[in-house]
Every structure is written in C-alpha cells, then in structure tokens.
Amino acid sequence: MYKEKCRFFLNILMLLSFMFVACGGDDSDDNGGNGGGSGSATITVSQKDLSVPAIGGNYTINVTQTGREWNATPSTDWIKVTVSGSTSQTGTIAVVVSANNGGERTGTITVKSGTTREIITVTQGVALHVSKTDVYSNSKGEEQTVEIYSGSDWTATANDAWITTEKIGNTLIINTAANDATMKRTGSVDVTTDTEKVTITVTQESAEDREMNIPDGYRLVWHDEFSEGNQLNSKDWEWENQNSGWVNHELENYRPGTQTIDGMHTTEIIDGKLNINCFKGSDGKIYSGRVNAKNNGAGWQYGYMEARIMLPKGKGTWPAFWMMPISVDWANEGWPKCGEIDIMEEVGYHPNYVSSSLHADGHVHTNGTQVTKETYIDGAEGDFHVYAIEWSKEKIITYVDNVKLLEYASDGTIRNYPYDKAFHIILNLAWGGDWGGANGTDESVLPVTMKVDYVRVFQKK
Question: What confidence tens digit (pLDDT) does each residue in 174-210 have?
C-alpha cells in the first residue's frame, strides 16, 4: 500500500513537470518572435542602400517588423542613429552622417529583432578638396596650378577681375594680371560642386617686389619697406613697454614709438627708414625701442629672412636683429630650452664686429657653449648692410651681404635644435647690459639711432 501511494505521487509530479515545460515556451531572447519562437521575427526597411554626399546629411528610414522589440546599431562613429518606435511593429531610424573630409568611405547600420538582422549600407562620397587654399603671385603676374579632388563635377569662378581661371581635367590653372600698385592685393577663386564649395585665396605682391632680389625657390610672404607714414603700422608691429633691468641688466627703458618723451620718439619712420632711437630723457633715464613682427600671432616657421640695417656708433650700444618663438611656456620650458636665433648682434665697444648666435638647452652663452660666429664688416657702423638667415628643418645659415657667416645643422634633438616651430622677428637697440655694457657705457654719444631700410620674409614656394 505504501509503495502504491508513492508511485501515485511520483506520476503526478512527472505529469506536472511535463505540463510546465510544454506551456512555458522559450524566453531566452527578449527580442523573440510574437508567439512563434526565437528568431521568427521579420524586418523590412524602406532603404537598404544609403548614398550620402561628402557634406553629410540627415535621413529617415522606415522600419516594419514582427518581433516584440527591435534596435539599430551603426558600425562607425561617423554615422549616428536615433530609433523611434522600437517596441512597435513600425518605427523609424533617424540617421545623421557627418561631413567627410577624406576619401570615399562605407559603413553599415544593423537592424535587429531577435536573431533576425537587416543590414543597411551607407556609402559616402569623397569630399571636395584642393591641393592648396592659398596662392601667392608676384606683382608681374604669373600662372599657378591647383589640383582639385572631387567625387563629382566642379567649376571654378574668379571673384576678382585681375584673376582668370582655366579647368584642365582635375587641374585648375589660376592666372594673375600685373599689379602696378604699391599695395599688395587679395582676391579669391571659388571651386564648387552641386553641394560643396572651397575658396582659394589669391594674394598678389605690390610692385615693390620688382626691385627685390628674391632667393631661388622662395616667394615673398611678408615685408615692410617703411615707405608710408611716420610710425610703424600697428597691424604688423608691436612695441615693448618695459623698464630698465627687464632683461640682461640692460639700462634702457623700452617705450612705444607713439609716446613723446621730451619731444622725441623711440621709433619713427623718416625718409623710408625705420629709426630706432636711444636717448637720455630729462628725467635722467635712458629710453629706446624694441619692436616685434609676429605675423598676426602666427609667426613664421622656416624661411629666408633679411633686413638692411645701419648700426649706431658708441660704447654702450647693443643693436640686434633676432628671433624668438611665437609662444613660450615660461613655467615649464623657459629659456634657453625654447630656443633663440640671433641673426645679427653688435656691441659698440667692439665696433664693426657683427655676430650670429644660436641659444638652446644644449648650447648657451651662460656656460660658454653657445653656437656663435663673428666677422668684421668695414662700415657696419654708419653704413647699410644686409643681414639674413636661411632657416629650415635641417639647418640654419646666416649671411652678411650674401656671404655665409654661421652654419649649424640639426641633430634631430630638441636639446640642440628647438628651432622647428614658429618664431617671430625682433629689432631692438639696447643700452648697456651684460654684453653691451661689459666695458662700461659712454652717455656722451647719446642720442644714437639704428636705421632699418626694410625687413623681408620669404618662404619656399
């Protein structure tokens, strides 16, 4: 009797277990079918292939599906999707494709419901781009070529009458007419497709460049001939305003040329020359000028820079034409690690001996390791001479009247060649200081003037 009861209850338990399994179904996938088991959902999308222009765009794809829930996932970060109606039988995918600045590219959007997948292919065309967006021309007029890269047809339109264009295959030819004015001019050319536009800026030098000796392989990118007005152009130059002792224990007080001190100016333009004046004021202080050309804060990285300068006479003078980085992290980098390029320096107690020097972490005058070269130039004080630098990633060469003075090659280290970034130009006339006043000063020679005929910057074409 006991065994029969046990067998009866065992049969009941087996029957209940069978009913539970039969009725429970398979819930292993939350995105399963609508009563039809896993993977039985169907998906239909309104568009399986999406062709997008390089500028990108917004698109909507309609989705119909038979599952309980669905979603959509892009294969790349340049495709963004937002799903609406993911728990409904119908919904939409909002697609945002970002602009393409490179070559043609392809991505996908995977729409999933349960184990069912539908793939949407997104193809984006090549962006319109040009081999150069800035074109420079001499004043005589010249032909320049620009390569155009586009996945569709393009046209070019000159926005100024002195510019003409011609299209030959994927090459745009830009021609400039002669510019006989004493001011350089700027124009533009628009390259367009049905959906995109790129503007090429065309800058043409003034007629002044016809008198210049432009180094082979270079083009004039900036200059000041000091031919207009009686003060420096504040667009191109900035004045230092510093008291004596600011650097190198120098005795002068740097003041802007726009200030009048006892009827005098630290800088002024007279007869097409920049005069940097050093004089003693009625208050007993020495005043002088130091000016910076920074190219609108961008400076210049590499090039051929030159200035035609007449040096002053007198013990205590310390004129210089030199360069410093456009930006220095003084807290973490500082000097001399940042680098300094002295194209020309001279001190009055050692007249007519001009020098070029380089300062870096690996070579600096404070421990006698600076890279420097000196030469005697008859009439450096009292006559004009041309001081220049040819500066590249590989080396620095300085010249006096086209004769090489210093040459220094890069060893590829920041310690010895921190001259691989943008620098700006400095002109100044110091008085006294660690070098200029090493043998004392003679105030009886004051006032004195450093004259600059021009400053020019050339860079590789």
Answer: 999 999 998 889 999 999 998 889 999 999 988 888 8
Concatenating the DSSP letter of every residue in 103-116 gives S-EEEEEEEEETTE
**CA 329/CA 327 separation, integer angstroms:** 7
Give, in degrees to the nearest 5, the angle at Cα 292 between 436 and 225: 105
Q: How do residues 230-285 score in pLDDT, each as one tens digit?
A: 999 999 999 999 999 999 999 999 999 999 999 999 999 999 999 999 999 999 99
Q: Which residues pair with 374 in a beta bridge?
A: 355
How far is 352 from 382, CA to CA, in rounded Å? 9
Nearest to 345 by CA among 316, 386, 311, 379: 311
**The tokens of 366 are what?**
């404070």
Active site residue 208: no
pLDDT of residue 11: 55
**Does 407 participate in catalysis according to the annotation?**
no
Virtual torsion, Cα 352, 353, 355, 361, nearest 10 deg: -130
What is the model's pLDDT at position 6? 45
User: How far is CA 234 from each of CA 216, 231, 243, 259, 298, rounded to the nearest angstrom?
Assistant: 31, 9, 21, 14, 16
pLDDT for res 40: 74
Q: Is residue 393 classed exposed, middle or buried when 0-12, 13-18 and 19+ CB atoms within 10 A define those classes?
A: exposed
| Distance between CA atoms of residues 2 and 228, nearest Å | 124
d(CA 191, CA 206): 26
Report residue 90's pLDDT band, with 50, 70 and 90 as the boundaries: very high
Q: How far apart are CA 72 and CA 82, in angstroms?
A: 8
Distance CA 396, CA 175 (A): 34
- What DSSP character marks residue 185? E
Which of 345, 346, 381, 390 is catalytic? The answer is 345
User: Using an 8 Å Cβ cutoff, are 31 and 112 in contact?
Assistant: yes
Tell the residue number behind the tokens 């230092």, with chain if given. Answer: 240
Closest CA to 432 of 321, 288, 291, 310: 288
- Distance, in Å, from the CA atom of 224 to the CA atom of 205, rounded to the nearest integer, reads 12
pLDDT at residue 375 tops 90: yes
Q: Given a cut of 70, is residue 2 above it in pLDDT?
A: no
Quick count: other Cβ atoms within 10 Å of Cβ 27? Answer: 8
List the catalytic residue out of 250, 340, 346, 390: 340
The reply to whether the predicted model has a pTM over 0.85 is no
